[in-house]
From TrEMBL:
Alphabetized UniProt keyword annotations: Cell membrane, Membrane, Transmembrane, Transmembrane helix, Transport
Protein name according to UniProt: Probable membrane transporter protein
Protein's UniProt keywords contain Cytoplasm: no
Compartments it resides in: Cell membrane
One Pfam family of this chain: TauE
Main location: membrane
Membrane topology annotation: Multi-pass membrane protein
Organism, scientific name: Variovorax boronicumulans
Similarity comment: family membership: Belongs to the 4-toluene sulfonate uptake permease (TSUP) (TC 2.A.102) family.
A cellular component annotation (GO) from this entry: plasma membrane
Length: 237
């Protein structure tokens, strides 16, 4: 990346880490489209690697609120979905992957905005895990399905449980991508360059995560995701 691109992506990562640390979702929705515009070849590995320390931090910070039953069912579905995500990744070129990321970002954001309130059960948890496995392995974006099932739960439960599900799923996705030969040094180097911005965003989120209006910020994240996804689609044509 050029110096200008590094600054741009670092700002996106900082903001994305702050939003996810405060609300429990949003990192990949914000960071992946920006990275896809600058360096589509870094997707999804760079996003997945950056999310490992971020989600461990969020999970540990509010570990007492984790919904372990829901997380178990989500993880089961997540494991099944990883195979589908790997197939999507193998079938698409870098430019087509950018189109897929842009379209899936917009679709996920719209669904999250329009979904009515409901109480999730086992079927909803497994379905969310399955969809997350496909989209996160292929693009690094997996938050919207999990946000859907937890959007009406207490904020600490939402943040900590989604972080746990992300953490387990990201390890599975990275192991699968490594076995398939889809990880190289440039992706890991880019993640290392962006790590300071991630740390700053995560630390800032600690200051506000108990006071911020989570619903308003989640809506803002989805609107931002729609705009970012649209920009990525336009850039890919």
């Amino acid at each position: 990346m050029s110096a200008q691109h590094l600054v741009l992506v670092s700002l996106a990562v900082l903001f994305a880490a702050f939003v996810q640390g405060a609300t429990g979702v949003g990192f990949a929705l914000i960071a992946a489209p920006v990275i896809g515009i600058v360096r589509p070849d870094l997707l999804p590995v760079c996003v997945l690697v950056l999310m490992l320390p971020l989600n461990f931090y969020v999970m540990w910070r509010e570990r007492g609120a984790i919904d372990r039953t829901g997380a178990s069912w989500i993880t089961g579905g997540r494991l099944l979905g990883t195979v589908g995500g790997l197939w999507v990744l193998a079938a698409l070129s870098a430019s087509h992957l950018s189109l897929f990321v842009g379209a899936s970002t917009i679709a996920a954001a719209l669904v999250t905005l329009m979904m009515p309130a409901f109480s999730p059960g086992r079927t909803a948890f497994v379905a969310a895990g399955l969809v997350t496995g496909v989209t996160e392995t292929a693009t690094g974006i997996g938050g919207p399905p999990l946000a859907l099932v937890y959007q009406h739960q207490p904020a600490p439960t939402m943040r900590s449980t989604i972080a746990l599900c992300f953490l387990v799923g990201e390890l599975v996705s990275l192991a699968t991508l490594m076995a398939a030969g889809r990880i190289d040094g440039s992706q890991l180097y880019a993640a290392a360059l962006l790590l300071p911005a991630l740390v700053v965003g995560a630390v800032l989120s600690r200051v506000v995560h108990r006071r911020i209006n989570g619903r308003v910020l989640r809506i803002f994240v989805q609107v931002f995701a729609i705009v970012s996804g649209a920009a990525l689609l336009l850039h890919s044509f």
